[in-house]
């Protein structure tokens, strides 16, 4: 079983002719409200594929929180670990102009109130899980507590997004650490001497994770472990909306690893899931079933 520990946000999206400058008011389209947040996205993506999935997260006792819970349950996610209250549900306020450029303000809200105590109180969820997947839209001290509560025979998958320096204890637990190009650059800082993703993977591996996956958008991905570095084939598709592709990739990878697949095969499957996700609008709305992935 897969346990996703992370954020759940309501994405509030308004289309505008022009994004407002300082002091300016512009009129926009009707409001669209979409379930989002990296934790919520991953849980829905995994459940849609058929993975037995639980989400450990925090939402507010408000309409957005209920919307997010409904979206999780509709996808088949076990929401017994979703805590309610303490702050308003996390929200992303998004304006999008006709060229597709956006401006985003995030209020972490309840996501910022998911505490180490909440992790300790969820120990039964951890014991039921073969793979635990986390991101960084919750407090780092909470992610540290996740690592400390991993069952001995489980596997930890981390997408360090938004990226920030990680304690050795967290890095050492990752199997794999999954980064896109931007996250790789931030984590490597001055150490990033090369433009070759293979080099980033090797440098990241030297920081202590047991394995590393670098996602490269339309170019696919690569995997790195003590077995070496290998390219994962990209899948050619007509991209419509890449929102949430990385979350779908990570969820699929975590699920296949939990099913016992080797890293390179799990990543190749995840690349197919990511490819389907970019052919459709939205994040959670774009995630495929296993049958849709097989039909690609
Ligand atoms: P993120 O969304 O975190 O920035 P990427 O853009 O690297 O992550 O996308 C994650 C994965 O989704 C990629 O490794 C790839 O497998 C798939 N993917 C993303 N964009 C495309 C695309 N245009 N065509 C095919 N696959 C894609």
UniProtKB/TrEMBL annotation:
Cofactor(s) for this UniProt protein: Mg(2+)
Subunit: Homodimer.
Pfam families per UniProt: PfkB
UniProt entry keywords in alphabetical sequence: ATP-binding, Carbohydrate metabolism, Cytoplasm, Kinase, Magnesium, Metal-binding, Nucleotide-binding, Potassium, Transferase
Catalytic reaction(s) noted: D-ribose + ATP = D-ribose 5-phosphate + ADP + H(+)
Gene3D superfamilies for this protein: 3.40.1190.20
Known regulation of activity: Activated by a monovalent cation that binds near, but not in, the active site. The most likely occupant of the site in vivo is potassium. Ion binding induces a conformational change that may alter substrate affinity.
Protein family: Belongs to the carbohydrate kinase pfkB family.
Domain of life, per lineage: Bacteria
Residues the record lists as binding ATP: 180, 215-220, 246-247
Pathway field: Carbohydrate metabolism; D-ribose degradation; D-ribose 5-phosphate from beta-D-ribopyranose: step 2/2
CDD domains per record: ribokinase
KW Transmembrane helix (keyword) present: no
Active site (UniProt): 247
Residues where substrate binds: 9-11, 37-41, 137, 247
Name of the protein this chain belongs to: Ribokinase
Localization annotation: Cytoplasm
Keyword Ribonucleoprotein (UniProt): no
């Amino acid at each position: 079983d897969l346990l996703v520990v992370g954020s759940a946000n309501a994405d509030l999206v308004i289309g505008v002719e022009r994004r407002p400058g300082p002091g300016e008011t512009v009129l926009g389209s009707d409001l669209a409200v979409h379930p989002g947040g990296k934790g919520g996205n991953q849980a829905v993506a995994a459940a849609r594929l058929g993975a037995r999935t639980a989400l450990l997260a925090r939402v507010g006792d408000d309409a957005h929180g209920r919307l997010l819970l409904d979206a999780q349950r509709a996808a088949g996610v076990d929401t017994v670990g979703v805590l309610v209250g303490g702050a308003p549900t996390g929200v992303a306020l998004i304006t999008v102009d006709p060229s597709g450029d956006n401006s985003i303000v995030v209020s972490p809200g309840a996501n910022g109130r998911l505490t180490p105590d909440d992790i300790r109180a969820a120990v039964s969820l951890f014991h039921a899980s073969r793979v635990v997947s986390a991101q960084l839209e919750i407090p780092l001290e909470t992610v540290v507590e996740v690592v400390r509560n991993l069952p001995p025979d489980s596997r930890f998958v981390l997408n360090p997004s938004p990226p920030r320096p990680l304690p050795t204890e967290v890095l050492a637990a990752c199997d794999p650490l999954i980064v896109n190009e931007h996250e790789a650059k931030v984590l490597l800082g001055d150490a990033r001497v090369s433009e070759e993703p293979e080099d980033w993977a090797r440098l990241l591996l030297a920081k202590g994770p047991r394995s590393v996956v670098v996602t490269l958008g339309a170019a696919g991905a690569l995997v790195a472990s003590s077995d070496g570095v290998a390219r994962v084939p990209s899948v050619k598709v007509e991209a419509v909306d890449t929102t949430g592709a990385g979350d779908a990739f990570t969820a699929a990878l975590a699920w296949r690893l939990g099913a016992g697949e080797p890293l390179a095969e799990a990543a190749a499957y995840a690349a197919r899931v990511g490819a389907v996700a970019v052919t459709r609008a939205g994040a959670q709305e774009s995630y495929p079933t296993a049958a849709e992935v097989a039909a690609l």
